[in-house]
Each structure stands twice: as C-alpha cells, then as structure tokens.
C-alpha cells in the first residue's frame, strides 16, 4: 500500500492531548455512523488529528474511517470490560475524552492507548480482508488439503502485519518525550493482542458431516481483546524513562520482563471522590455488589464509606409455551429484589 510521507509536526508536551491522544475522539465523532469520515473533509478534524495525521487522512480517507470505527469499538469494549470497576472508562464531551487525569500517564492511559489501538488495527485488518480499503490483496494462510478425512479450504485471512504498519504510520510522531515513549509501548501491547491470530472455520459440506471446512485466520474479537487488556491492567508496571537511551526501567527492580505488559509513569488516583477538573466522577451513588468476591463489591467501590440497601418489588411474569408456536405470559404476583448503592 502506498503512503505519502508524513508531514513533520512539532509536538510539545503542553499540547499533549492534541498531539498524541486526540485521535481517540475519532471514536465518538458525529456519534460514529459506520462511514463517519468518508464525507468529512480531513481539514475539519483539526481538533482531533495533529498535522501529520491530517496529511495521512488526506491521502488515506478510507483508512482513517476504519480507524474511527475500530476506535469506537475499542471504547465500547473498554466500557463493557471496566463497567464494574472504580474507573469505568467514562467518556466526556469536549477536549478531554476520558478526563484530564489521563494526561498523567497512569494505568488507565495505558489501557486506553492499548485497547483503542487494538480496535483500530483490527478494523483495518478486517476491512482490508473484505477489500474495503485500496491496495489490499488476499492473504491465504494455510494449505488446502485433507486432514483426518476433512477437506480444508482456506480463504483470505486478516493481514495483521499490514494493519500494524498502517496504524504505526498513523500514530507516528517526531516527539521523543516520556509521554510519546510510554504511548508507543502501550500501542504495541495492544497491537500484539491483535496479532494473536487463530483459525476460524465453518462447515460447507452437503451431508452435514462437516467433511469440508472453509477456514481463515482471524484476530480475537474486540471483546476478547478487551478482557485481555483488563487482565493486563491488574499487572501493569510502573516505569521511569532513562534519559540517556529512552529505555523503560521498572520502578520495582525485581521485574525483569515488561515487554508485553502495560506500563505507566504515575500512579492512578483512587477514583473515590469527585474531581471535575480531572474528569473523575467519584463513586457516591454507584451501584455495587454485596458479594465480596466481585470486582464491584461495595467494599471496593464505596472506598470504605459504606453503602445503603434498597429493597423493592416488581411485577413477576409467568410464561409458557403454547403449541404451536407461541409464548404466552401473564402476571403472577410480585418478586422482591435488593440493590446496593455507595454512600
């Protein structure tokens, strides 16, 4: 795929949000129709894309559209996977999509960089496989043939290497400050999760015996990637950046290998108390679980403030299958339920 050389952009730390992170907002641009960027001039995205990304957009409009769709799916996966945590990946309107605190390069910044990069990269690979992007060719991985009486026929697979190359060019920045170094590492963590391909097959035989299977190699779906990022959130590594060679050094010296782990520079806030300046909602009024083993247990979510218990009733319906072929329901009393909310 031919790309224009990216225009050089000066990226100052004071405008970090505009240089390295505003592209996240592609995921909520115009509420994200399935083809959000196609009819939008790239120049109108100046508050979302930096100058080099605008240049990229001018020459690769359809690719930026794929990035927008994938970014949106990454945001949804983030909100689904962190729904029961103190930080639940809330988004806001305006300049700071996830809140200003993410500028501090916390564990949450790492999650966002990894998961949104993964979503965008996976969408590029999917659209390339489906020939929705220019200069994409069919990538056949696997040899057609018979294995254990089953004939395997391979179709076009996800071209993860090309998707990674495209996304790397989109994210390219001349900056070499700590923020850029940390972001690049976490982008690569997300990219590596996309690269964990697996074979996906469907039966195409006529007899129902599945004697013929049509297969291709795909990436994990974005929800699975979101689950893996959430797992890495718990094992993320605090680092410093070596001023002489830009190497990442774990603060805890006993950690030897952090190449595939999320990394961060500053520890996260507790998210217990509201701080509108930094985009932190706090947990007062949040619903929680009375089960101590749940990630959203009241002990964790409520930050030691305790919780209130609300018991209520609602109509109960009893349904039965009527042959043939419908289901009939009728009210059959009330049922009681209990909910818990943080003080």
UniProtKB/TrEMBL annotation:
The keyword Transmembrane helix appears for this protein: no
Alphabetized UniProt keyword annotations = Developmental protein, Disulfide bond, Extracellular matrix, Secreted, Signal, Wnt signaling pathway
Which N-terminal stretch is annotated as signal sequence? Answer: 1-21
- MF terms in GO: cytokine activity; frizzled binding
Keyword set includes Secreted: yes
What Gene3D superfamilies has UniProt attached to this entry?
A: 3.30.2460.20
Entry's localization field: Secreted, Extracellular space, Extracellular matrix
Q: Any one Gene Ontology biological process term?
A: cell fate commitment
Q: Which family would the database say this protein is a member of?
A: Belongs to the Wnt family.
Name the record gives this protein: Protein Wnt
Native source species: Amphimedon queenslandica
């Amino acid at each position: 795929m031919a790309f224009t050389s990216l225009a050089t952009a000066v990226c100052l730390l004071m405008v970090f949000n505009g240089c390295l992170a505003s592209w996240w907002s592609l995921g909520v641009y115009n509420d994200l129709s399935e083809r959000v960027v196609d009819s939008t001039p790239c120049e109108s995205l100046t508050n979302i894309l930096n100058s080099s990304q605008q240049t990229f957009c001018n020459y690769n409009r359809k690719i930026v559209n794929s990035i927008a769709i994938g970014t949106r799916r990454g945001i949804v996966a983030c909100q689904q996977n962190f729904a029961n945590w103190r930080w639940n990946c809330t988004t806001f309107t305006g300049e700071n999509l996830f809140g200003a605190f993410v500028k501090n390069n916390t564990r949450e910044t790492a999650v966002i960089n990894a998961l949104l990069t993964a979503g965008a990269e996976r969408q590029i690979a999917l659209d390339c496989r489906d020939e929705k992007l220019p200069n994409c060719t069919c990538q056949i991985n696997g040899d057609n043939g018979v294995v254990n009486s089953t004939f395997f026929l391979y179709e076009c697979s996800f071209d993860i290497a090309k998707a990674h190359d495209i996304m790397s060019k989109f994210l390219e920045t001349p900056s070499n400050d700590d923020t850029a170094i940390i972001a690049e590492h976490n982008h690569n963590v997300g990219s590596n999760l996309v690269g964990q391909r697996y074979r996906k097959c469907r039966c195409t035989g006529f007899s129902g015996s599945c004697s013929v299977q049509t297969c291709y190699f795909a990436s994990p779906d974005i929800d699975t990637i979101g689950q893996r990022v959430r797992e890495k959130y718990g094992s993320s590594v605090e680092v410093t950046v070596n001023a002489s060679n830009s190497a990442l050094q774990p603060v805890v010296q006993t950690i030897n290998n952090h190449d595939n782990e999320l990394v961060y520079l500053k520890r996260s806030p507790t998210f217990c108390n509201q701080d509108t300046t930094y985009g932190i909602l706090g947990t007062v009024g949040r619903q929680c679980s009375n089960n101590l083993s749940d990630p959203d247990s009241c002990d964790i979510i409520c930050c030691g403030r305790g919780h209130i218990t609300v018991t209520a009733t609602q109509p109960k319906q009893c349904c039965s299958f009527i042959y043939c072929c419908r289901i009939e329901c009728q009210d059959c009393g009330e049922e009681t339920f209990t909910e818990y909310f943080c003080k």
